[in-house]
Amino acid sequence: MSARSQLVDLIKAALTAAEVDPMPDVKGYAASLDITQPTVLVAPERITPMVALPRGSRTYVFSVLAIANQTIPTEESEAQLDDLVADVLDALDAVVPENLVTWSTAERSTYMDKAPAYLITVTTHLPNTP
Predict the structure, then answer these.
(1) What is the C-alpha separation between 63 and 42, in angstroms, rounded?
(2) Over its length of 130 residues, how does the chain's per-residue pLDDT go in tens digits?
(3) Could you give the CA distance from residue 123 to residue 64 in angstroms, rounded to a whole number?
(4) Of 62, 78, 103, 124, which one's alpha carbon is 20 to 30 angstroms from that of 43?
(5) How far is the C-alpha of 67 from the C-alpha of 115, rounded, in Å?
(6) Distance between CA 73 and CA 78 in Å, rounded?
(7) Angle at the Cα of 101 from the Cα atoms of 95 and 103, rounded to 5 degrees
(8) What's the CA gap between 3 and 69, in Å, rounded?
(9) What is the pLDDT of residue 53?
(10) Whole-angstrom Cα distance, residue 80 to residue 73?
(11) Can you state the percent helix, strand and coil of the chain, rounding each to 5?
């Protein structure tokens, strides 16, 4: 299983355990450019070797994009985004062990110049298994 798939599964599990409502759609890719519900996209950015660990150990840096529904009025969309980014950050903080997944920044953004979003930088030390 790829590191991206593992991170998607970890985020989904943490959001489910927290009983987030509405539950966002968490994906490892953008299946559609139209965002009609809260969505979390996970995209790989960088892979580096972990020098202190055995050969093949890697650090993965991902961009995690928390996107509000773009089909609702702006005020509702902004409120939804505030809740969504808090839920995603809480989910990332809930991953155990703590050093497996860390986030470093959450910056205000937009998705496809349409939907309000936050771009969250996430670092993982997940094994990339076949």
Answers:
(1) 6
(2) 888 999 999 999 999 999 999 899 999 987 777 788 999 999 999 998 877 766 667 899 999 999 999 888 889 999 999 999 999 999 999 987 777 899 999 999 999 888 899 999 999 986 655 5
(3) 10
(4) 78
(5) 7
(6) 9
(7) 110
(8) 27
(9) 64
(10) 11
(11) 30, 35, 35
3-state secondary structure 52-109: CCCCCCEEEEEEEEEECCCCCCHHHHHHHHHHHHHHHHHHHHHCCCHHHEEEEEEEEE
What sign for the dihedral angle of Cα 86, 50, 58, 46? positive
Cβ pair 79, 65 in contact under 8 A: no
Tell me the HSE value of 52 on the side-chain side, using a 13 A CA sphere. 2
Summary count for the chain: helices (H), strands (E): 2, 5
Of 72, 88, 77, 73, which is closest to residue 24 (Cα–Cα)? 88
At 79, the amino acid letter reads A
Residue 56 identity (one-letter amino acid): G
**Domain spans of the chain?**
3-115
